[in-house]
Amino acid sequence: MTHEQSRQERAFETLAIHAGNTADPLTGAVVPPIYQVSTYKQDGVGGLRGGYEYSRSANPTRTALEENLAALEGGRRGLAFASGLAAEDCLLRTLLSPGDHVVIPNDAYGGTFRLFAKVVSRWGVEWSVADTSDPASVRAALTPRTKVVWVETPSNPLLGITDITAVAGIAHAAGAKLVVDNTFASPYLQQPIALGADVVVHSTTKYMGGHSDVVGGALITDDADLADELVFHQNAMGAVAGPFDAWLVLRGIKTLAVRMDRHSENATRVADMLTAHPAVAQVFYPGLPEHAGHEVAAKQMKAFGGMVSFRVKGGEEAAVEVCNRAQLFTLGESLGGVESLIEHPGRMTHASVAGSALEVPADLVRLSVGIESGDDLLADLKQALG
Question: What is the pLDDT of residues 96-109, one digit of tens each?
């Protein structure tokens, strides 16, 4: 058995700590250094040390993160970007040309929708909306020009679940690539490449970083040719993760497994409490047996994650008041940090989808359930609900 084979057979928790994290050869430092450098001395013209010449093209700290990302998602290559949207932009401009068509979900992050509707469409790329939780809806949305099927599972903000294997089969039969945004689940809970996805997208700002102190994005693929194309575009377009940001994400990933266990545990308690609360009309959490995607989620996820959304019986203003009354849950955008967050998607993260097929309910509240005491989180939500 080779060293590479033994590394790939190690458990996720081990890979999260060790993949890409080689001890510094100069000092033996167990944490990869932050190579805060723009250029590198060459040993004669074209004589590159380790392949490094300019930090937009490659940087040792970013390389460590990219190796780690590939190992965790079971891909050949990982690429780290300045933000999740930078990663998406690079991917779309690599895969698509004017005249191509994309199928996007009817429940997706507002920034992703904005990228398709306001940016990529101006480049001559068309898109259609499908309920990706229903494979028949995806099949019906395909056209002869479809090059990409885009999926979020769990989705943002309604926690919809898509059967990755089923949709991969539909996309591939049509000659399209399947892209899965795995941000909500993280690679600890779900590994889309093993289920048939061609590319995995992450906002590493969220669970991968885990501490609300860094913005970043990632792409991972197991397709060697596509990986080469993505690397070319990453360098040509230049929206790369800086070395300190890469270092922060790499640090966050080391505790990803233990954090996701606690996020999932707390979110399950929160979802159960909300389901029984008289002020709540509906709860969206794939861990609930009554959730439409519960069986699929149980099949393709290790646990159900830390995101919970719910509708308030009193309508939009009541939902806004719940957000305003929360104390331990911080009112703010983003998600996936150790601290709990609360927000009103219609007026905050998903304002860009207003009036579209992706418009979210006005009475919806989204929670990013942190790793604080579950008892304290339940008490805060109860007082916020009144």
Answer: 999 999 999 999 88
Average pLDDT over residues 39-61: 91
pLDDT above 90 for 336: yes
Instruction: Give the C-alpha separation, 6 to 333, whole Å.
Output: 40
Both tokens assigned to 351: 């304002």
Structure tokens that stand for 68 in this block: 């780690």
Tokens at 246, concatenated = 């890469």
Contact between 182 and 220 under an 8 Å Cβ cutoff? The reply is no
Identify whether the C-beta of residue 59 lies closer than 8 Å to the C-beta of residue 247. Answer: no
Type of residue numbered 75: G
Q: Cα separation of 99 and 293, whole Å?
A: 34
Q: Residues with catalytic annotation?
A: 56, 109, 181, 206
Residues 85-99: what's their mean pLDDT? Answer: 98
Query: Among residues 268, 150, 132, 273, which one has the least CA distance to residue 201?
Result: 150
What are the CA-CA distances from residue 206 to residues 186, 253, 260 (Å)? Answer: 9, 11, 12
Owner of token pair 């190690």:
10
The answer to whether 303 and 264 are in contact (CB under 8 A) is yes
CA distances 375 to 88, 196, 379, Å, are: 38, 39, 6
Rounded to two decimals, what is the model's pTM? 0.95
CB 82 within 8 A of CB 209: no
